[in-house]
Amino acid sequence: MAKIGILSFAHMHAYGYASSLNSLPGAELAGIWDDDLERGEAAAKQFKTRFFSKMDALLESDIDGVIITSENIRHRAMVERAAAAGKWILCEKPLATTVEDAKAMVQACKKAKVGFGTAFPCRYSPPLMVAMQQIQSGAFGEIYAASCTNHGSSPGGWFAQDKLAGGGATMDHTVHVADLLRWILKKEFTKVYCELGNQLHKGSLKTDDVGSLHLEMEGGVQISHVASWSRPKSFPTWGDVTIQFIGSKGVLDVDAFNQKINVYSDAAMKAEWAHYGGNPDTGLVTDFVQSIHERRDPSITGIDGLRAVEVTVAAYQSHKTGKTVKIGR
Predict the structure, then answer these.
(1) Total domain count for the chain?
(2) Short-list 218, 136, 242, CA closest to 183
(3) Which residues are CB-contacts of 92 (< 8 A; sequence separation ≥ 6)?
């Protein structure tokens, strides 16, 4: 039995991970810490586990690993503390707000000899898993280009505060697509040009709510990507992840969350989507638990998180300078 703690419920994904942990026979949600006492106690009650008022008390307990779902800017400090305590770590995306912090986190876990993973649950979306298998099998030949979106609703709160999040929609929604493309195409990004702005929430947000990126990967693969907080409150779900791959043998369109049934509810007074099929959060957490049992890194590593951060940081640099920015080591 792998005993897992969760550090902070600041990020809404914490609720999905906690639910997944409670559904796994080989795992136990052994404790929750949160600097927001009310939020943490409510989460502990909801998921039937113990609340720790002090982070060190949870880290010094007999847990095997932690899932970190705090504000982005706090990831590094929490990872370093958990690594020093000898715990396996799964950290929410983006791994960090700077390349320097992401590298330091990877190094801290390597030094402590603990497993370190990045929370990219989209890799466990059934449509994307099939797309990866099809493309890697050669069914679509050589991939020349891809057109991608990751649109969502504005989360507000700390997500829209640069000091805590490191950026807005471009920071929040580019890392998912960057990771998926690296995983599916087995190539690295080489450069990016980005334009971004506050187009949709002027006055209510002080950070970017839309970013338009043109990227290039090894071998000259051309990528277009739009990241945004453009979904209205009435939209059935938080957003999307879509990719269209252009290959020498055909075109493949993927919608990561299209396993759904349209529901029209008078109780909600809006259309809703009832999802079926695989649960990406459960796939992610299952692998994390297995990595603890097997004493290995999670399948989506800290290096994967670092590479996605490199793309996003370069995108913001491109916007600031108005120039194409090279990505990489």
Answers:
(1) 2
(2) 136
(3) 11, 13, 14, 67, 68, 69, 70, 72, 75, 119
Handedness of CA 82, 83, 85, 89 (dihedral sign): positive
Give residue 105's identity as a one-letter amino acid code: M
User: What digits encode the pLDDT tens for the residues 84-142?
Assistant: 999 999 999 999 999 999 999 999 999 999 999 999 999 999 999 999 999 999 999 99
Span between the terminal Cα atoms of the chain, in Å: 39
Under 8 Å between Cβ of 309 and 327: no
Q: What is the H or E stretch that residue 231 is in?
A: strand 221-231
Q: 49 with 71: CB under 8 angstroms?
A: no
Phi and psi angles of residue 118, each rounded to the nearest 5 degrees, phi first:
-110, 135
For residues 21 and 284, the answer to whether their CB atoms sit within 8 Å is no
Judge if the upstream peptide bond of residue 232 is cis by omega within 30 degrees of 0: no
pLDDT tens, 177-202?
999 999 999 999 999 999 999 988 88
- Sorted by sequence, the CB contacts under 8 Å of residue 56 that are 6+ apart come out as 81
Q: Who's near 27: CB < 8 A, 6+ residues apart?
A: 1, 2, 3, 4, 21, 285, 289
Rounded Cα distance between 150 and 177, Å, is 7
264 dihedral zone (left: phi>0; alpha: psi -120 to 50; beta) = beta
**Do residue 208 and residue 132 come from a single domain?**
yes
Nearest to 123 by CA among 281, 14, 326: 281
CATH number for the domain spanning 167: value is 3.30.360.10
**Same domain membership, residue 55 and residue 152:** no
Q: Which domain holds residue 172?
A: 123-278+309-326
Give the CA count within 13 Å in the CB-facing half-sphere of 74.
Answer: 15
